[in-house]
Amino acid sequence: MPLLGAHESVAGGLHLAFDRLEQVGGEALQIFSRNQRQWNPAAVSAAERNDFIAAKERFPALKVASHASYLINLASGKNDLVAKSINGFVSELTRCRLLEVPYIVLHPGSHGGDGIEAGLERFVANLDAAIEKETYQGRVLIETTAGQGTGLGASFEEIGYIISKSKHSAQLGVCIDTCHIFAAGYDIRTEESYKKTMADFDKAVGIEKICFFHLNDSKNDLGSRVDRHDHIGEGYLGKEGFRLLLNDPAFSNHSMTIETPKGKDLEEDRVNLAILRSLIV
Length: 281
Hints:
The chain is an alpha/beta fold. Helices cover 38% and strands 15% of the residues.
């Protein structure tokens, strides 16, 4: 049975994300290891590390993912942005090594108008450069995207290119975001379309490369190229696509986190996770 959980806040301390996950009955966790809108966050302190690892030990089956900063763009053609992006990602690798976080989720970035091929080549080269500056032993998961603007990663072929061309392919995996692939034009709402989408991914990347899922409904329709998450069953994706995914034997042991809208408390997470669990047969 898939491990279901949520992206939870680290407000007040990294270790408190586990308390929040416990409150919603989660079995998988995603966090930001630092503010996702800052270039130069503080290093992980010894106290933070000890508190985080102690909290994580309460969940022996849990595989935590950290989502890398949204500022990082390893596909950029601007030298100053690339330098900051490489340093920023190396810092993320260092934090996750110290915190013993096994997965880092990373967006492929934007080519900035230079074209997909140029962007992908730069992304692979700069990702490899960052990986070689750190001793992190976990897996870097390339996230599928909706394809807004000049963003990379909306097609499975682009994800496949990154993984096949990287010198560190064995350390790379994929995080599938259901909202993103739907917005990019991959339908999973019927058994036929779900099987086709997964077959397309297997051909372009390899189904074994999928390590983690983001379960989000979509506020916009199929192929919209707009990344807007909705509550489970309330968007254009609907419940059936999630039912097919959650009951796919290929992903019966995978970690899956929601990134659905949150209110002032955690009730929305509880509701969304309850709906997902109701779909498992």
